[in-house]
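Researcher: Good morning. I'm working through a list of sequences from a screen, and I'd like to move beyond sequence-only analysis. For each chain I'm collecting a predicted structure so we can compare shapes side by side. This is the next one on the list. No need for commentary yet; just the structure.
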Amino acid sequence: MRIRTITSGRTFESDFYPTLEDAAVFNRKATEAYTSAGYEVQTARISTQPWTDYLGHMGPAELTQAVDSIESSCAEMDVPFISIGPVSGESIDAVPGIVSRTTRVSAAAAIADADGIDHDACVRASRAFIDISKATGKGIGNFRFGALANCQPDIPFFPASYHSGEPCFMIGLECGDLVFRSFARANGLDDAAGHLRMEFERSLRPLEEIGFELEASEGIRFNGIDASTAPGLAQNESVAYAFEKLGMGEFGGYGTVSIAALVTSVIKGLDVRTTGYSGLMLPLTEDAGLVERFNRGYFSIKDLLMYSTVCGIGLDAVPLPGDVTEDQIYGILVDLASLAVKLNKPLSARLLPVPGKHAGEMTDFGSPYLIDCRIPEIE
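Model: Good morning. Structure tokens for this chain:
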């Protein structure tokens, strides 16, 4: 288990520098507290309220200058990533320019909330995915853009993260290995929930205790731990291979939905302070087992949408052909948004059109954090 992110939520003003600096200083203290306790902390990040609240009054040239300043200030303060939140309406059209000219800034489009689907936002977000793919090498910029459906503030994972209210911090984990170990010891489905709950609570309580200590010493609210099952790249960190330890066949076959529901049910009921998605996370190109089973045709994008009815995040890190159309992406987004509204749960989409690549070809992102994957056909 690793800490993928310590994310600090802050409310920015037009003069954002003092708040950014304060959050960066806190993140260094929090990182030291966890690393001193023996944990690996991969990143410490910052999320803000939707950027239109503090940059929305600016014209295009001034907005560009402000975004450049955020980027350079983050570099100066050694902040690897900052999320400037989800927007709707015409503001979505500015996001490709923001993402394509930066390397540290994430942003999002709000496509649905509890009241329903914003179809205009779905259209604009579909166009943004394509525009970002064309403007960034191999479409890699779309790792910093997402479409959010019914997502609440202060999810620690990017690009869904945004902030509301008083300063806070939260933890996001990389903990597929906890699922793998739990299921390797379990004697079938009936025994799996108990092992999973025991493993998660045993592993998360020390993290929670450090969070409470930081809350008391620094006066910054600890929102909790997003206990979602973000996988690592190794086989024994794969959520897909963990499922298969229960003896119900390969991931993607019958039984997958039942196991997915079990995992999410356990995580939702943990006796620790949780936040964010806190459910089963299935980021396709970040899990060796998911990629292997997907490449062999065991499941599809439609299946991932079905799994999201009983699990966590939605469609994450899913490659698409470079010639995918706005209408095709729109169809994916409205289906995801419909599930989020109907089931009253947070779902998001991080889709990766790959310029110059066609269905059936392999991605070649060249990233140490990703596994190359077969690009699916959009039916």
